[in-house]
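STRUCTURE:
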């Protein structure tokens, strides 16, 4: 399941960040909305970024005789 990093900026009240496992970006945005509903304040900005893990696999060519 993809992982998203949600950042909600409340201006002078600070920034709340969390990482969410979600099927798509819409579900991650819903988590951001729940954070704002708990604080009962409007955010300055909401950012959702997908966390991409890259792994390197080294392969050498195989010669057939």
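SEQUENCE:
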């Amino acid at each position: 399941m993809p992982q998203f990093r949600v950042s909600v900026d409340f201006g002078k009240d600070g920034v709340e960040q969390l990482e969410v496992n979600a099927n798509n970006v819409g579900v991650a945005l819903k988590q951001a909305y729940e954070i704002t509903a708990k604080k009962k304040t409007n955010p300055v900005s909401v950012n959702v970024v997908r966390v991409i893990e890259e792994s390197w696999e080294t392969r050498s060519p195989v010669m057939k005789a």
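REMARK: The radius of gyration is 19 Å.
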